[in-house]
Structure formats: structure tokens, C-alpha cells
Fold this protein.
Amino acid sequence: MKNSLKNLLIESFKEETPDLKENVIKKCKNVVQEEPLQNVSKRAIFRVKLYKTIIAFSLALLFCGGLLTGYFAFKPAPSQNPTVQTYLYLDADPSIEIALDENNVVLECNPLNENAQEIVQGMNFKGMDIQTTVNSIVGSMHLNGFISSNGNSVLVSISSSSPKASDLLSNVTKQINSAVQKTNASCSVIGQAVPISKDLVARANENGISVGKMFLIDKMAEDLGGAEETTVDILSDMSIKDLNFIYLNRPGSIPPNGEVVQGSLEGYLSQEEAIQKLLDYLSITLQDIRIRFVKVVPYARNDKKLVYLIEFEYASEVGVYDYEVDCLTGEVTVGMSASNGRMIVQ
Amino acid sequence: MIFYALTTEEEFERSSQIESLIKRIACGEVDAVGALYELVKTDVFAYALSKTGNKTDAEDVMQETFVNIYKHAKQYQPKGKPMAWIITIELNLIRRHFQLAKRTIGIEEQPFSPFLEESFEQKVINNAFISNMLKILSDEEREIISLHLVSGFKHREIADIIDKPLATVLSKYNRAIKKLQGSLKEVKK
């Protein structure tokens, strides 16, 4: 039965099988035969494998080398603050140090005193641009009363190796001015470029103040008669408002002819006003005297007061007199004869 | 017993002929392809038809199988089983054929077009027995029947070719035979 089925099946398939021989031969003539695999010797196969392995190993080495090169090329140099290009110091009693990279992006923001800690509390400026950071800090200073209608001052100091440092200083100063104006507070903004100096940084750290404030004090100490330790100590305790006031009224700002130079700040008496207070106190007029100089003296009596020291001589008599006028109240506190040192008012 | 002995001898003779033709083909003799075609065409076509289920595809597969035999003849390693090598080539082509068909169907899902319908030529199987076989047997049953009854492969060899357990091959073969015998009886009636 199976054989008959088999024969039937084979015969049936034979009947159906098409005759495609000519087509097949025609197609084969256009086909290129593939070479036998056995013709490839074991040695050749081994050689190919060896070459492949060497190439793969070399590529792997190259890849690893590239990775390592990339890693070391972009790895920050092992220094303390490797990418800091600029230090920006904001002083308005709160003292804040901001480290910036070459794109003026904040790397660090450090409060340098207790008031500064209040200002930046809960804020993370890392990675932010300098404009946003300054706006936030100025806003916080205003909210905490450090920029208000009593005429405080903000000192902006920049210590940078960037050739565009002066642009940054100008921009930040303008920005703070603009921000202060929006708050309707009266506040003056002082900008200064600070040289990069390890000694300056060391002395700022020693006195517990910012590098910017230290530099300002150094300049003032020179103007006030030498950077003596006592002077620096006194100035270090002073607010930026007071320092700014002293700076604007530094001796160099008074021309030799004795004319008074405007250097007032809100809340303080101007030099003119102080002189008028003295004239009123002595019941004389400006024509009766010749002013030799007017200068602001900080904490002259160790009482944390700023006074105008006004030295003058009477037109009608021989003798030089020094009077101290409180910069805030206009009270004449001390008067003495510069000629013989005799106290007139105490 | 005599029948089986003869069958084995015939098979041996046939295998030797196929191998010598493949050797000639390996030497680039295109005429040997024609001789091989005459010798194994029914085996190749039967297997192609049993796998594809339609004559058009079976013819395509058949042609490609002989072209590929010519192409790879130099790579053939004589082991006394040249038909197994040929069927393996054919099976690979059929698999590729189905893969391509699957992709083509996926891409060409187009609306009905009478022009397409007219241009499509479907070759009809004239033989009633084969036509009936294609209807009543499953894909695997057809494949096993074709390989065993037409090409003369042993069940164990078929199990290796189609990658199925021997028991499965045997049971499917027996079931297929019963179906075919039943069908044959009905035809005779």
C-alpha cells in the first residue's frame, strides 16, 4: 500500500515538475562561483584571526587612550580654586565674597560676617550668572534693612585676572545702582578694582573683613597719614557708609586754595554745613576766617564718631585754631589752639 | 528484504551520481547543472511545493536552488549525502522567501486593484492527487511526506533537517499516510 502510494506520489510530482532546465543553465552562466572554504589554510585562518585580534586590541588601546586623554584634558587642575578667574566682593556692612569663573558664572558665594550670613541664608548661587546673583543679594540686603532710606553705601570690589574685569565692575555697579533705585532707597555705590595680592588677602582675613574693604582701608589709611595699625583697626570696624564718607572727604579732595569740595552723603553734614555750624557756634562769618583745611577724622576720641576737623586762622589776628564738628549732629565737640595746644572747647 | 537492498543500492548509486555532478559543477561545467537538474528536479520541486504550498513560489525556489548549487558547488564537502546538502540549500532559500514575503505583505497593504488582479499569474496544479495532498495535509506533514517518499530520506535524517524529534516526525508521517490513504480510497471510489 505504501509503495503504491509512494509511486503515485512520485509520478504525480513528476507530472507537475516544470521544465526549467534552460532557465537554470542561463542563470548559472551569469553567476560567479564562490571559492571553497577548505582552500583557506589553517595557518591563514590563524593569521587572519591574529591580525583581527591585534587590530581589535589596538583599537581598544586607542579608545582607552582617548578616554584617558579626554579625562585629563578636561579634569580641573588640582589647585584650591582652579577655575576661579574673578573674585567679586560686595560690602554694605554685610560682606560677601563671590567667586566667578571665566564666564562670570558663580562658583562659590561666601558670607564673610554674621550679617552676610543672614543675607544669603537659604540661597544657593552656585551655577547662577552674576546678574541674577547680584540682584538676589541686593534684594535681600534691602529686605534686611542694609539698603534703606538712611543712605547706606555699597562697595563693589573686583579682583580678577580677566582682561574684561573693568567691564564687569562697571556692569555690576550700574546694576546695583539700578536695583537700588527701584527700591526707592538712597544709597551710593562705590566701585573699585583690587589687585591680586596674597598679602592683601592675608591681611583681610586677619582683620575679618573682605579683600575689597581691606583695599579701601589701605588707600584711606595712606590718605589719613599712614597705614598704621591703629588706623587700620579703627577703619576695619567702620561701616562702608562711614568709610565712603571719609573717602569722599579725604584730604586730597580739598584744593590748596581752601575751597570746600562737595563730598556729602545722606545723613551726614557736608563740609559746607559743618563749617556753617562752626561759624554759628563762634558767632562769626566766613569772611572773618581763612580755612586752612577740613578733613574727616574717624573715631578721634575713641567714641565711634566721625568728626570734621576744621583748621582755620582769623583774618584779624595771629593764631591757628582746630575745631571738631560732629559729622552727623553738627555739634562742636572740641576746639583748641593749634598754635599752643590750649583747649578752647571740650 | 530484496526490495530494501535494492533500494539502498539504488540510493547509493544515485548519491554517487549526484556527487560526481556536483564535482563537475565545482569545476565550472554549467552542463552538469542540466544533468543534475534532470536527476533531482522532482525531489527539489516536491519539497518546494510541500513547503510553499503553491506552484509559482515552488518554481521560483526550484530555480534558485539550482543556481545556488552552482554558486556554492566548490564549497561542497563530499560526505555521501549530497541530497541533504541540496535540501539544506533549498530550505534556506524557502525560509528567506517567506521572510521576504512577510515584509512585502507588510509594506504592500494596498487597496484592491483590478489591474493588479489581472496581471497576477497564479499557476494551477493540474494533478488532482497533489492538489488534494496540499489541502488535506498540514505544512509539516507535507514536508515529511515529500522528504521521505519522494527524496528517500530516512526519518532520522528528516528529524535532523527539519529540527524536530524523531518521535514527532514518525507520528506526523503516520498521520499523513493515513490521511493520504483515506483520500486515495475516496478517489478510487
Notes: Residues 82-107 of chain B form the longest helix (26 residues).
